[in-house]
Amino acid sequence: MIDARQVLRANRLFKNFGDNGIVIVGSICEPRRYPPGSPIFVAKQPAESMFIIERGEVQIELQVGSDCRPLGRLGVGDHLGQLALLCQGERQVSAVAVTECSALEIGRRNFLKLQAVKPQACLKLMLAIWEDYLEAARAAVPALQRLLIARQARPG
Question: Does the pLDDT value for residue 123 go beyond 80?
């Protein structure tokens, strides 16, 4: 059995949450289990939930034509799919369990319902997601700059 409060406390999105906030968000978490090779979510499908890995390893994959390219791996305490709580859209990548995995799922529908009764906890999580996203975007800038320079240096 997954202890939602323990998993949330171990995730960086919840580093500034007090016990009450953890309990509030924990109330909408659903435990999930995935055998090796099982998709957690699939590219081009609606983004409806975020996940926090409690146990196991997950590979993030990008579909390019008929090829599936691994982008990276996530493990215990990591989160994925978090933008689904902020905006509607479709998944840009797939996430597949590499090993036996257990995770907490926070569904967009439940998150929106919680906003009506506990807006402060939801706003705190939304801000944490945006801060996390901006940090990742900033970290990607040097690689994007190198890519642009390499493309400009190519003839034709």
Answer: yes
Contact between residue 97 and residue 36 where contact means Cβ atoms under 8 Å apart: yes
- The CATH classification of domain 4-153, taken from the options 3.40.50.1970, 2.60.120.10, 3.40.50.2000, 3.30.70.2740: 2.60.120.10
Say how far apart CA 60 and CA 48 lie, in whole Å: 17
CA distances from 100 to 43, 47, 49, 144 (A): 21, 23, 20, 34
| Eight-class DSSP state of 84 | G
Residue 56 phi/psi, 5-degree rounding, is: 105, -170
User: d(Cα 54, Cα 130) in Å, to the nearest integer?
Assistant: 22
pTM of the model: 0.90
Is residue 82 within 8 A of residue 11, CB to CB? The reply is no
pLDDT of residue 144: 85
Q: What are phi and psi of 94, to 5 degrees?
A: -110, 155
